[in-house]
Design brief:
Layout: H1 7-11, E1 14-20, H2 26-37, E2 40-55, E3 58-75, E4 80-97, E5 100-118, E6 125-128, E7 132-134, E8 138-145, E9 152-161, E10 174-175, E11 180-186, E12 194-208, E13 211-229, H3 237-244
Parallel strand pairs: 1-5, 7-13
Antiparallel strand pairs: 2-3, 3-4, 4-5, 5-13, 6-8, 8-11, 9-10, 9-12, 12-13
Length: about 240
Amino acid sequence: YSSKNNIEKLKELYSDDYINNDGFNKETIFKMMEMASGAYKDVSYTTEIESIKVEGNYAVVKAHELATGETIKEIEKLKDTGTITSEIYYTDYLKKEGNKWKILASDIESEKVELKYGEAKNMVVDICAPQKVPQDSEYEVSITAKIPDGVFAVGSIVNEPIVYPQVQAKDVFRSIKSENLSRILRSNKNQNNEYATVSIAITRAQVQPPSLVLNMTGMAFVMKRVNVLSINKNVNLDKEKNDVK
C-alpha cells in the first residue's frame, strides 16, 4: 500500500488507538503521510522482518525498512529535483481486533534520511549522532563528507524537535575546510525526540570578467533521529520508608 501510495488502504491496517514514540496518533501520522505523498514520487520500499513474537491477541514485529524516491519539486537555483533515501529500524506492536491484526503502536529506534540535489547526489555524507540522549543534555554530532574536487562547501548542523507542524531551526553555515565538521548540541527540555540535521551547500567558481562568481551546484540534507529520554527525579528512599512507617 505504501509503494502504491494507497493511503486509504494503509489506514485500515492501523488501530484507531494508534500512537508512536513521537507521541503522534493515527490522525497526525496520516496527515504527515499525505504531505509526503504530495512531495515525493516513485517511492519504493524494501522491508525486512527481523522477528515476530505473538502472545494471544498481541504481537510484536521488529523490522528494517529502506525507501528511495524522488522529489516532485525542483530547487529553483539548481533547476533539479532531488533524490531521497530513508533507512529505519522500528518495532510495531499489533493487536487483534475481530479477525484482523491492527498496528496499535510503533517505536522508531533508528532513522536516517538523506535528501540530495544536483552535484551533491553522488556525494557521500556520513553522520554520527547518539541514538538516545537525556533531555536538556549536550551531545556531539559530527559529519564526514567526501567533498568533490574544485568546489567550495559550507555546512551547518542543527537539531530540530520531531513535532507536527514541523519547527525548523535556523541554520548557521560554516566553511567546510576539511572533510569533517562537528558541533555540540543540547537536546530539548520538552522530551520531544529530535533530528540532528546536516545541511551542505556546494558551489563552483566561474570567471565572469572582471568578477569571480560562485554558482551553487548541489545541496545535501542528512537527518538522523535522536530519541530523547526523560530524566526521572531521584527518589528519597529514606523519606518513603518513613512515610510507610
